[in-house]
Design brief:
The structure holds two protein chains of two kinds. By secondary structure, chain A is an alpha+beta fold. Helix content of chain A is about 20%, strand content about 30%. Chain A contains one helix and ten strands. The radius of gyration of chain A is 29 Å and the shape is elongated. The chains are: A alpha+beta, B mainly alpha. The complex binds FE2/S2 (inorganic) cluster (FES).
């Protein structure tokens, strides 16, 4: 407290210029390592939900037989047309395509890139995702263009008594 | 003055593994290999304490602490 130092404004009654911003943004080695550890923590936490879902799947629902569900009457779906439906639950949208007189294919149509709904484009005989122009092969569900890397999950369908039924969802072939 | 990069480099490695595991984890989940998913999750979780231990061990090494002493 003795005397005033040469700083201006001087220290003891400096109430306004008291924030030291020197080196505020510098990141030293220790700080950098701290950040990395934090990032590792974020990764650890972020992988938890996937693990839980997987565990759930392993414990109970691994039996993938859902009750068969009627989609549409054969006479209401002309060749080359498609129809949206939901299978196995109300929240899994899917698309049924009648390719030929007796050939039907169905896929869960949440794009494997970022889950936009994939549409059947009749003229190009291709399934197209409008979001980032992902394309899928209609015969197999395999991605043919754009960002998606994984195939669409196929829904097995069955024709019985002049109607089309969804039977089950096929496993990916990894 | 001696620099020590061991901590930084090994932590970078840990983080790289984290990213790789995460990618595989999500892919395997969608491919319905749930057991593999669980293994990758365990891996990702284990990497965190490893990172922390590396940090604890390495934080006082390097140029700064030498300069202070
Ligand atoms: S969400 Fe379908 S291509 Fe990106």
């Amino acid at each position: 407290m003795a005397g005033r130092n040469n700083n201006n404004p001087f220290d003891q009654d400096n109430y306004t210029h008291n924030i030291d911003r020197n080196n505020e943004r510098s990141l030293d080695r220790r700080g950098f390592m701290k950040t990395l550890v934090g990032a590792a923590g974020v990764f650890a936490v972020a992988s938890l939900p996937w693990g839980t879902l997987a565990a759930k799947e392993l414990m109970g629902l691994s039996d993938k037989e859902y009750p068969h569900k009627k989609i549409v009457d054969v006479k209401n779906l002309p060749v080359g047309e498609s129809l949206e439906f939901h299978f196995p639950s109300e929240h899994d949208s899917a698309v049924l395509i009648r390719l030929e007189e007796n050939k039907y294919v169905a896929y869960q149509n949440a794009c494997t890139h970022l889950r936009c709904p994939v549409y059947w484009v009749k003229e190009e005989r291709e399934m197209v995702c409008p979001c980032h122009h992902g394309k899928f092969d209609v015969q197999t569900g395999a991605p043919t263009a754009g960002p998606p890397r994984r195939p669409l999950p196929e829904v097995i369908v069955e024709v019985k008594d002049e109607a089309v039924y969804a039977v089950r969802v096929k496993r990916y072939e990894a | 003055m001696k620099r020590s990069y061991v901590g930084v480099i090994s932590l970078c490695l840990v983080l790289f593994l984290d990213i790789v595991f995460m990618q595989l984890l999500i892919h395997q989940y969608f491919f319905e290999n749930y057991l593999v998913t669980l293994i990758f999750m365990a891996g990702n979780i284990l990497l965190f304490p490893i990172a922390f231990l590396i940090y604890k061990k390495e934080k006082d090494k390097g140029a700064e602490s030498h300069a202070k002493k």
